[in-house]
Backbone:
């Protein structure tokens, strides 16, 4: 990791968008799924995942086999993590409300869960049971009636046992062996095996992200997930081994992941630089981590913690760690971050797995206006309006004035016809 100026650090986060070739490929896949439905899913799964399937849906027998295969320690860890995630998200529930005014007008808001949600879980060689928990449990807590999970199969047509068991623990209703842009298209438009959903959530590769972008409007989506990223703000009290380990925890995700240290201590910067190199050599995914650090890793030294917060706010990182003597004081200066970890023992992987808050977070600077995945993402809200006659007679003339100022005569007439009726009744 190089020690660079803060402007160079900010430029390191600039990313390239989707290419025209990628757009054309994904548009073609979506069109094919809309036309050929299950037939397209089976053909594309054979083409991209080298899996020749006889059925797209995971069977009860496969789920039972997964429960027998999974390590009991992993099962217990999944159950405990699920319980913490569930408890955290239950605190996010919002209720419908109604307010009656003195003139008899009743206003309110009705909160209802979405009916059906699709969850994309990366697969193939990867195994991400934590992704299942984080994407499914908020939907279940929100009251979603049906959760459909899609995940690419391995070449032998199977889905890893930890992924299937996590789906059972989380409360998934249906699991489909399909991945890539074709899975997103199936969820958005429906096929014989995949029901059309109202919203699609979950991370994936560039083709998955692009497909989600293209089907938005047909269905809702959570966000367009970018590469993983972490910013650590540290002062001279931080342990360089802790800082280095946490930077590497994100670098191992992929060669486009970002790991950045902002520190007030030049000595710590040099110590972390050396510690990253030492620890990286022991990692199984060290080549991926090294590539990520070379492209998107950086260390910058600033004069004071307020400046560190300003630089971090410009980056609006997915994960932000405050490894300083008084993280709670510094918290007041943080405006943009997906998740904020305070103190030496609040390591980012704690948030990934067991703390409870969701690990599906805004990336690529979108923490300036996006929030972590939560219960609110799985509900919709309807306004309730009941106007009494008294209130209508009072406010009707104002509506006519406003409608006529916009040239909307029918709007004005809808009010005037009622005012005229009331005037006629009063004359009688």
Residues:
């Amino acid at each position: 990791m190089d020690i660079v100026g803060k402007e160079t650090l900010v430029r390191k986060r600039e990313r390239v968008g989707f290419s025209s070739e990628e757009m054309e490929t994904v548009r073609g896949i979506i069109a094919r799924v809309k036309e050929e439905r299950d037939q397209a899913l089976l053909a594309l799964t054979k083409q991209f995942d080298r899996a020749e399937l006889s059925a797209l849906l995971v069977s009860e027998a496969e789920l039972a086999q997964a429960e027998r295969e999974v390590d009991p320690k992993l099962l217990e860890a999944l159950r405990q993590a699920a319980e913490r995630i569930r408890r955290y998200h239950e605190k996010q529930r919002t209720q419908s409300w109604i307010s009656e005014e003195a003139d008899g007008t009743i206003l309110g808001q009705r909160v209802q869960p979405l009916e059906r949600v699709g969850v994309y879980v990366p697969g193939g060689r990867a195994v991400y049971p934590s992704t299942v928990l984080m994407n499914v449990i908020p939907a279940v807590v929100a009251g979603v009636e049906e959760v459909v999970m899609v995940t690419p199969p391995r070449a032998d047509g199977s889905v890893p046992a930890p992924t299937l068991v996590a789906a059972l623990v989380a409360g998934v209703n249906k699991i489909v062996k399909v991945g890539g842009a074709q899975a997103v298209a199936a969820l958005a438009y429906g096929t014989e095996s995949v029901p059309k959903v109202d919203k699609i959530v979950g991370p994936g590769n560039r083709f998955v992200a692009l497909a989600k972008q293209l089907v938005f409007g047909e269905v809702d989506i959570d966000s367009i997930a970018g590469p993983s990223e972490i910013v650590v703000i540290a002062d001279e009290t931080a342990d360089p081994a802790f800082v280095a380990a946490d930077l590497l925890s994100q670098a191992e995700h992929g060669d486009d992941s970002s790991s950045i240290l902002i520190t007030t201590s030049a000595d710590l910067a040099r110590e972390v630089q050396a510690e990253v190199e030492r620890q990286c050599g022991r990692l199984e995914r060290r080549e991926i981590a090294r590539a990520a650090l070379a492209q998107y890793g950086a260390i910058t030294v600033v004069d004071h913690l307020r400046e560190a917060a300003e630089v971090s706010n410009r980056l609006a990182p997915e994960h932000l760690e405050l490894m300083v003597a008084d993280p709670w004081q510094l918290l007041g200066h943080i405006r943009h971050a997906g998740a904020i970890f305070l103190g030496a023992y609040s390591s980012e992987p704690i948030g990934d797995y067991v703390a409870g808050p969701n690990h599906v977070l805004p990336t690529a600077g979108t923490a300036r206006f996006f929030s972590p995945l939560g219960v609110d993402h799985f509900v919709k809200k309807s306004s309730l309006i009941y106007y009494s006659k008294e209130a209508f007679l009072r406010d009707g003339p104002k509506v006519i004035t406003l409608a006529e100022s916009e040239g909307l005569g029918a709007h004005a007439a809808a009010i005037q016809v009622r005012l005229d009726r009331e005037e006629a009744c009063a004359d009688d």
User: Anything to note?
Assistant: The two ends are 87 Å apart (CA to CA). The CA atoms of residues 147 and 172 lie 5 Å apart. The chain is about 50% helix and 15% strand.
